[in-house]
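Support case: user asked for a sample of complex input and structure output to validate their parser. Sending the pair below.
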Amino acid sequence: MSVEQSEAARASYNRMSRVYGLLSNSSEKKFVEVAIRQVLEPRDGEVILEPGFGAGQVLLALARMVGPTGRVCGIDVSDGMVAAARRRLAGSGVEDRVEIRRGDASSMPYADATFDAVFMSFTLELFPDDEIPVVLSECRRVLEPGGRICVASMSARGKNGLMMRSYVWAHRRFPHFVDCRPIFARKTLEDAGFEVLDEKLLSMWGLPVEIVLGRPK
Ligand SMILES: C[S@@+](CC[C@H](N)C(=O)[O-])C[C@H]1O[C@@H](n2cnc3c(N)ncnc32)[C@H](O)[C@@H]1O
């Protein structure tokens, strides 16, 4: 992301950070649950990265799923979200398995081949078209050979019905409020050099949601 785009995303998510947990519990939560429990399926002892962790619900769930020998790292551009996630993790009993920091997913401060898996929900589709391959190339770099990536996103697949047309209109008209836009998640991962291992196409109030699991080819 350019410095300006990164600053805009940071400012916008900082404003939302106090209420984001409540907002996402009423919308994305169900899809994120399916994505982590039925598609990613974290294992004991794994080391998992979540770019764009928002209010930290997934960080907490992943930390419980990887067990005492596992580790979870998160990176998010918004300091408000970092603070919200820290509040959520405090006293959970698993906070020592989680390391979070503020930063940009298009340039991540992790060594090559650090993670068994990368999980990203409702975040990849925030990036401009030319930036998505950069983010995915970063994910690929930090994944172990044979590691997995699981992406849940608003999807451009499926019918272009009234809900979808209204959503796309709202995204164009109010990009700071409706900042996700539908993408072809499966194709995006394939174009970035991932082999697709599993996928689900679900619906959020009539809007398609794609969950895709891949591994580097
Ligand atoms: C729509 S929210 C999704 C949050 C969470 N993954 C969920 O499913 O509820 C997008 C998140 O991505 C973060 N974000 C936006 N641009 C980012 C960037 N360039 N690098 C890292 N995180 C970013 C935002 O701060 C926000 O927390």
